Amino acid sequence: MSIVRTGFYSSLATAARLVAGLTVIKLVAWYAGPQGVGRLGQFMGLMSLLAVLAGGGISSGIVKYVAEYRHDTERLSRLLAAALWYALAASCLIGCAALLFSHPITLWLLGDVHYENLVRVLAAAQLGIALINYILAVINGFMDVRRLAFIQVLGALLSVVMVAGLSWWLHLYGALLALVLSQVLLLMVGVPAWWRSPYFQRSMLRIRFDAEMTRRLAAFSVMTLTSSLLPLLINIAVRDHLARQFGWDHVGYWQAVSRVSDAYLLFLTTAINIYYLPRLAAINDRASLTLELRNACRHLLPAVMMLAATIYVLREWLTRLLFSADFVAANSLYAPQLAGDVIKITSFLLSYLMLAKAMTRVFVISECVFGLSYLALVYAFTSSFGLIGAMYAFAVNYVLYLAFNLWVARRYLEAL
Questions:
Q1: 189 FRET partner, CA 20 to 30 A, in 123, 180, 346, 397?
Q2: CB of 319 within 8 A of CB of 247?
Q3: How much of the chain is helix, strand and coil, in % rounded to 5?
Q4: CA 213 centroid distance within chain
Q5: Nearest to 36 by CA among 326, 317, 236, 316
């Protein structure tokens, strides 16, 4: 399937997820103001953290190896049996840990024990989240973009309905609860869709430990957990720093601009993840890899620049539409954030080469180094420039990350 067709289907799925996400932000801004949006960011950070840990962080590995083994029935069966074992074991472990430490987690992230039951519900939902992540990764590995988009669109629609209902009933608490329950509801859509796919086999539901496949998946687990876990922890630390230095209202302004950025970039990052990861994993010669990376830049960079420029021009209207009049102070934060977004997408196109080719050591070291450099830059720039310094730190850090990825990609291609 071409990048254009992949982009079309992934755009449909992303648009649905975007509407669902913005609905939550709008409702929280309506009911709880900037402080509520700031706390929403903390809870969503916890959700993302546990979702990654629940499945052992092997979704990228499943995508890569399903793309490689889809014509090798024996190896594919071994891979998926090991992957399901890995994901379920990790989800049980993480769910139990979250239940055990629900009280200190709630106090640390949200500062209010009123939300402790939400953390417990999230812990109990880890098994279902791990299962849907496994199903979506298998479908992505077969590059069945149409089916993947169908699941995500229908799941997003169910999520919007649940968020609207529970937030009307329970306000902020209900919106956060709906975020958790909607993740599990995705199984109601994903399981039947996968079951009816032409490549589904009952053996894909077999659970078995396989030492070789587990080692292969573990390498991706380390990379995915590093790339997902570290940024989440860094962002939690940034929110805590901004809250102490400027107050929760300012965290809400920073969070609002970050959410707008994440929302429109979903269209591009989803296409990169769905198309380029399995595509790069399947290519092993220098000329084809170089051509694929050039095509990626040619298609995606103009798109992100156009989207960033549009967001900047419409920033005041978007802030009022998505949040409320209380967020007017956020408008001054958009310019450096959007500049950083363009650099971020450019660097992502190259960093996926490390994932696709399992460059575990280089990937993990780079994620740690640039995660910590971002936090250090936030501390340095906010002390000099105020809240907008956090946006300056974001942009400067991705300039450094892009330079690093250019160096890694050049060395890898020259070695082929």
A1: 123
A2: no
A3: 90, 0, 10
A4: 25
A5: 326
Burial class, 196, CB count within 10 angstroms (exposed 0-12 / middle 13-18 / buried 19+)? exposed
**What integer pLDDT is reported at residue 2 of this predicted model?**
53
Q: Which residues of the chain are under the pLDDT cut of 50?
A: none
User: Which pLDDT does position 32 carry in this prediction?
Assistant: 65
Q: Tell me if residue 324 falls in helix, strand or coil.
A: coil
State residue 397's pLDDT score.
Answer: 96
At 159, the amino acid letter reads S
For the packed helices 102-109 and 73-100, what is the interaxial angle rounded to 10 degrees?
80
**Residue 247 corresponds to which tokens in the numbers above?**
């107050």
Burial class (CB in 10 A: 0-12, 13-18, 19+), 211: exposed
What pLDDT shows up at residue 413?
Answer: 85
Report the amino acid identity of residue 49. Answer: L
- Tokens read off for 91: 């989800």
Taking the C-alpha atoms of residue 377 and residue 363, their distance in angstroms, rounded to an integer, is 21
What residues make up the domain containing 362? 3-415
**Six token digits for residue 383:** 């002390």
The two tokens of residue 168 are 């009307």
Give pLDDT tens digits for 19-33. Answer: 777 777 777 777 666
Residue range 386-414, pLDDT digits in tens: 999 999 999 999 999 999 999 988 888 88
Give dist(CA 398, CA 129) in Å, integer. 30
Instruction: Show contacts of 169-176: CB within 8 Å, 24+ apart.
Output: 171/31, 171/32, 172/28, 172/31, 172/32, 172/36, 172/39, 172/40, 173/114, 173/115, 173/118, 175/24, 175/27, 175/28, 175/31, 175/40, 176/40, 176/43, 176/115, 176/118
The upper half-sphere exposure of residue 279, i.e. CA atoms within 13 Å in the direction of its Cβ, equals: 22
What is residue 335's predicted lDDT score, i.e. its pLDDT? 93
**HEC profile of 174-227:** HHHHHHHHHHHHHHHHHHHHHHCCCCCCHHHHCCCCCHHHHHHHHHHHHHHHHH
Q: How many domains does the chain have?
A: 1
- Pair 220, 82: CB distance under 8 Å: no
Where are any strands of DSSP class E within 76-185? none
